Write a sequence for this structure.
């Protein structure tokens, strides 16, 4: 007998839809046994074990920068600082004078270069005669004060390699870019003239009172140092605080060191006085600076620590 009749007369090996093939057990029934009661209600046994729950995707570990390389926060800080520097248009060549940007400093520097080269290569007797005629001593100030005050500012004591020559180039360039050519010239020559008169007139009064010999009325006094020190003091007033005070302290240290050495006390007192004149001009200088559309920057806006803190705060907000 090749097939078995079930209770309702249906062949067990029928190939109708849903029927199991011969030799295959239907889920929930016993193999080789006719139709069983309640077999359909038995829970179906899984053919094979269900696959394990899908494991979450592996999260790659946070990238740790190798030793010696900056991390993400440091890179963000440096990038922010670079953007700020580009926004400020930091150009090192602007430290030097140009005919269009700083005409007064450029022209005056050319004039001083010519006179310095002349003093170095010309006949020493002729150079000595010109320097003595340009000296701002009491005798020349009494005869032609305006002439000798202008003539004494045409020479550099020490030549082109002196410290005041280098300070002249950078200081007057920076000051002229902030307040203009005419105002820079006014600051320079006012400081030069006032400091010269303030140091020479007491000598004349002391000689008249008998405190000094008559030989003190004639001395070799020329150069641009008084005007340069006045411009240094003036420039400190229009710079941000993070570079104002180092510049000011350096200038004061230069003047005080000369007084301590006591090599030329009259000139050293003139340096300190001219620096004070530049500091006294801070209020009008700041108004002139603001009138040119360049208000003095606040230290919190441009200092490097504040840039670093801003970058760290920005990175912390982005990580939340």
């Amino acid at each position: 007998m090749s097939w078995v009749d079930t209770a309702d007369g249906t062949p067990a090996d029928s190939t109708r839809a849903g029927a199991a093939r011969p030799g295959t057990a239907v889920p929930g029934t016993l193999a080789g046994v006719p139709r069983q009661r309640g077999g359909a209600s038995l829970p179906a046994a899984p053919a094979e074990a269900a696959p394990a729950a899908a494991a979450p995707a592996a999260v790659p570990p946070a990238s740790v920068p190798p030793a010696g390389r900056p991390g993400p926060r440091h890179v963000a800080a440096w990038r922010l600082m670079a953007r700020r520097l580009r926004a400020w248009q930091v150009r090192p060549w602007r430290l030097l004078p140009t005919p269009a940007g700083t005409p007064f400093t450029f022209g005056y520097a050319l004039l001083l270069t010519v006179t310095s080269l002349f003093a170095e290569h010309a006949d020493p007797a002729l150079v000595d005669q010109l320097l003595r005629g340009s000296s701002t001593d009491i005798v020349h100030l009494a005869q032609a004060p305006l002439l000798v005050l202008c003539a004494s500012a045409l020479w550099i004591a020490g030549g082109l390699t002196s410290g005041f020559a280098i300070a002249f180039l950078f200081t007057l360039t920076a000051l002229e870019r902030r307040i203009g050519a005419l105002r820079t010239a006014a600051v320079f020559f006012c400081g030069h003239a006032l400091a010269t008169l303030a140091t020479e007139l007491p000598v004349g009064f002391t000689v008249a009172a008998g405190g000094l010999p008559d030989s003190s009325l004639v001395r070799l006094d020329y150069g641009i140092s008084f005007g340069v020190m006045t411009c240094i003091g003036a420039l400190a007033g229009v710079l941000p605080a993070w570079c104002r005070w180092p510049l000011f302290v350096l200038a004061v240290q230069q003047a005080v060191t000369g007084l301590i050495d006591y090599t030329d006390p009259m000139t050293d007192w003139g340096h300190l006085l001219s620096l004070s004149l530049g500091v006294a001009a801070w209020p009008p200088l700041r108004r002139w600076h603001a009138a040119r559309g360049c208000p003095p920057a606040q230290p919190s806006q441009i200092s490097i620590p504040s840039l670093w803190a801003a970058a760290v705060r920005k990175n912390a907000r982005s990580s939340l």
Summary: DSSP finds 13 helices and no strands in the chain.
